[in-house]
Amino acid sequence: MTPADFSFRRIAVSAFAPSLLFGLGEGAILPVIPLRARDLGGSVAEAALVVTLIGVGSLLSNIPASLLTMHRGERWAIVAAAVWCALAIGLSAWTSQLAVFALGCFMVGISQAVFGLARQSYLTEAVPPEFRARAMSMLGGSMRVGLFIGPFIAAVAIHGYGLLGAFAVGVVALLVAAVVAARIPDLVAPPDERATEVATAPGAAPSLRSILRDHHRLFVTLGIGVLLVSAVRATRQVVIPLWADHLMLAPSLAALIYGVAGGVELLVFYPAGKVMDVRGRRWVAVPSMLVMGLPLLLMPLTTGAASLLLAACVIGFGNGIGSGMVMTLGADHSPRIGRAHFLGVWRLMSDIGASCGPALLSFVAATLSLGAGVAITGVIALAAAAQLAYWIPRAEATRRPLR
C-alpha cells in the first residue's frame, strides 16, 4: 500500500480494537490479582511473587513468540494470544489452589509476549513507513486506554459479584478481542517482496542465530537505550505509590494522583507519533526520557500531595509522548525476512529492562533509602536520553537494507 492510498480509518478497528480490548481485559484483573492471591491463602510476599510471574512469563516467551508468529502468521498469533489469555484468566478465577492461580498468571505473561510481538509485526507490515510512528503510538495508546478503563469496569462487576466479577470482565474482553482479531485481513507482500522471499527460502531464511549475528551492533547500542527506557517506565509505576506512602498520604489520594498522571499520558500519544513521523524519532525519544528523568530526580524533594501530583503529571507527560517509541524503533530496523526473530530479541531486551528496573529500585531502597532509589531512576532516564540521542541517528547507518 502506498502512502497516498493509506488511511487509518480503513484499519482502525482491525488494528487497534484488539489492542484496546486486550488492555481492557488485563486492566480489569491486574488490580485484583494480589487480592485474589491473598484470598487463596497466600502471604503478602507470595502475592507479590504471583504478580511478578506475569512479567517472568512475558520475558521467557519473547523468542518462542517469534517462532509462533513466523510459522502461523501475525493474525492467528494475535487470536491465539487472546484466547490463551482468556483461558489463563478463567483458570485463575476457577481454581482454589494458589499454585494453579500462579500458573494462570504465568500464562497471562506468555500471552502478553505473543500478542505484543504479533501486533507489532502486523502493523509494521500493514502501515507505510511514513505513518509508522503514528501507528505504533496509537497501538501503544489503545492498550493504555484499555488498561485505564479496565479497572473502572471491573469495579462495577466487583460491586455486584465480588472479585470473580473482575475476572469475568477480563475473559469477555479477551474473547471479543479474539473474534475481532480473527477478522483482520491477512497480509499480502507486494510482488517484488514475494520474489525476494522465494529467492531466499527455504535454506537461506534467517535464523535466530543469524539475526543476532547480523544485528549485534544495533542490539548493543540502540538496544541498550531501549533497555534503559523500559527500566525507567516500569519503575515509574512503582515509584509514585511508594513515594505517596512515604509522604503518608491516604491510599485514596495516592490512587487519585496515579490516575491523573495516567490520564495525562492518554492525551499526548497521537501528537507525539506525528512528530516522530514528520521530524524524526530523536525529536520525541530524547525529550521523553529527559522529561521523565528530571522530575524523578526532584521527586525526593516533594513534601506533599500537590508537589507529588505535579511531579507525577510531568512524568506521565514524558511517558505519554514516548508511547510506541520502542515499537517504532524496533520496526524501523527490523528486516523484512526474519522480522519476527528480530522483534523477539528486541522485546526481550525491553522486558529485561522492565524486570531489572523495579528490582534495582528495591535493592537501593533496602540498602540506602527510597529517595536514593527514586533519584537513581532519574539518572537512568537521563542515561537513556543520552544513549538514544547518540545512537538513533547512527542506527540508520548500521541498519541493513530491508529484505
| CATH C-level of the largest domain | Mainly Alpha
CATH superfamily of the largest domain: MFS general substrate transporter like domains
- Global structural class: mainly alpha
**Percentage of residues in DSSP E strands:** under 5%
Mean pLDDT: 84
Count of alpha and pi helical runs: 17
Query: What would the CATH topology of the largest domain be?
Result: Growth Hormone, Chain: A
Shape, per Cα inertia axes: globular
The appropriate CATH architecture of the largest domain is Up-down Bundle
Number of strands: 0
Q: End-to-end distance, in Å?
A: 17 Å
Oligomer: single chain
H and E string: HHHHHHHHHHHHHHHHH
Share in helix: over 70%
Biggest sheet layout:
none
The rounded Rg comes to 21 Å
In terms of per-residue confidence, which ranges show pLDDT below 50 for 5 or more consecutive residues? 189-203, 397-403
- Total discrete domains: 2
